[in-house]
Amino acid sequence: MNTRTQQEISAPSNQVIIEIITTIISYKFENLTRSEAEAMLGITLKETRLYRDIKEEGREEGAEQATVNLVMRQLTKRFGELSAERRAEISTLPLHILEDLSEALLDFTSLADLESWLAEVKN
To answer: The whole model's pTM is what?
Structure first.
């Protein structure tokens, strides 16, 4: 194998190794600030897969929480304050179900409609 081929093969594996080590160090030294970890590793964490994965998780959680808040506000406006158990039940729904609920609630005329819809979703 020529030198160029060896470099081409080893470049991706080097990046994978760096990302694995970065992930391990990130968890092992969780008390470090981002700038301290970057200085120690000699890299920019924003360029790592770990950072991108965490950022994506944050986006997903943010979208889910925003949808929960919107659905709660819509239901409260339409039917008044919901019970704590009903709020807890709605808060735990997966994002795609919350999105379905945000559309379905436009047709609800009473809390009974909401309860029926939630019962159907459970089954």
So the answer is: 0.59
